[in-house]
């Protein structure tokens, strides 16, 4: 019965009623027609599907593990590039910062407040600036492109002005990656901090750095709150965090290399996601074919 109901979900949804959640009454269910083969065939079909769906689920689990490993590889690539650079033969030195470790001898470390300054420029009344927000998974994006992720603001009067190249910080979720470089001019909520470079930088270097898992752990350490979901990263604490500061030309090289490497890893991840979707489709088709009699299940198919 489990396999029969799994392929009838669309039909069951169509005959259900309700607004908050769908309900199915006995009258709807008793009129529902389903195939009912002899009991020995039912047992055979169930054993066959148990075997095949387990194999498919195992294959999906392996591919999900491969995706996790590729994502871990992205973090390793990012950490190595942002703290050690691209030249493996360059002389190294101790940065003096625990979370950074050794850095190339010609690099510097600087406090965030010496690279960026916090700006609070309120927008004018009745403005039509692009409303921006920052997300843990995708960084800074226009709200209109992602309206389902949050409510539209009735007015953006007094919101902070954002310029291309600014770093936008969601104080409440910064330690979870809700921080990033803005590629847009616009406005954002006064609940966010806007950091503007005051030294020559490649903004993407710090975009990748601040959003990385190894840096997020340091940002969490500097956040304040009574519990994880109440932690806030204020600029007086964020500003004293020491970060790598390589020459700008080297920052540019690192970002070019990182983008290429990330694209290659993402291709592998996307390919695995596609394979998983195909396996899920195959599983659904197989169940449907078996319970509706489109394929004849034999004892040999169960034993094979």
Automatic annotation (TrEMBL):
Listed GO molecular functions? DNA binding
SUPFAM superfamilies given in the database record: DNA methylase specificity domain
Q: Which UniProt keywords apply?
A: DNA-binding, Restriction system
What GO terms describe the biological role, i.e. biological process, of this protein?
DNA restriction-modification system
Annotated ranges, domain Type I restriction modification DNA specificity: 2-70
Lineage, top-rank taxon, reads: Bacteria
InterPro entries listed in its UniProt record = Restrct_endonuc_typeI_TRD, Restrct_endonuc_typeI_TRD_sf, Type-I_RE_S_subunit
Record Pfam families: Methylase_S
Q: Which family does it belong to?
A: Belongs to the type-I restriction system S methylase family.
Name listed for the protein in its UniProt record: Type I restriction enzyme S subunit
Native source organism of the sequence = Marinobacter nauticus (Marinobacter hydrocarbonoclasticus)
């Amino acid at each position: 019965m489990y396999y029969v109901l799994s392929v009838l979900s669309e039909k069951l949804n169509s005959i259900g009623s309700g607004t908050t959640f769908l309900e199915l009454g006995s009258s709807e269910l008793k009129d529902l027609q389903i195939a009912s083969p002899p009991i020995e065939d039912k047992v055979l079909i169930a054993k066959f599907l148990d075997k095949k769906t387990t194999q498919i689920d195992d294959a999906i689990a392996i591919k999900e593990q491969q995706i996790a490993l590729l994502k871990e590889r992205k973090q390793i690539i990012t950490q190595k590039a942002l703290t050690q650079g691209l030249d493996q033969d360059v002389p190294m030195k101790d940065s003096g910062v625990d979370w950074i470790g050794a850095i190339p001898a010609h690099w510097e470390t600087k406090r965030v407040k010496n690279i960026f300054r916090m700006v609070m420029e309120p927008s004018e009344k009745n403005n039509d600036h692009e409303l921006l927000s920052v997300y843990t998974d995708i960084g800074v994006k226009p709200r209109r492109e992602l309206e389902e992720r949050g409510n539209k603001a009735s007015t953006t009067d007094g919101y902070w002005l954002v310029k291309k190249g600014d770093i936008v910080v969601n104080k409440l979720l910064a330690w979870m990656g809700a921080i990033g470089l803005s590629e847009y001019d616009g406005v954002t909520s006064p609940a966010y901090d806007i950091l503007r470079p005051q030294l020559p930088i490649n903004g993407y270097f710090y975009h990748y750095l601040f959003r990385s898992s190894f840096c997020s752990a340091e940002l969490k350490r500097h956040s304040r709150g009574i519990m994880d979901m109440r932690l806030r990263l204020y600029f007086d604490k964020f500003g004293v965090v020491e970060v790598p500061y390589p020459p700008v030309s080297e920052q540019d090289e690192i970002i070019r290399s990182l983008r290429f490497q990330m694209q290659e890893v993402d291709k592998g991840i996307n390919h695995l996601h596609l394979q998983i979707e195909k396996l899920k489709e195959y599983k659904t088709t197989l169940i449907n074919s078996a319970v509706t009699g489109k394929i004849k299940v034999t004892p040999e198919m169960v034993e094979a």
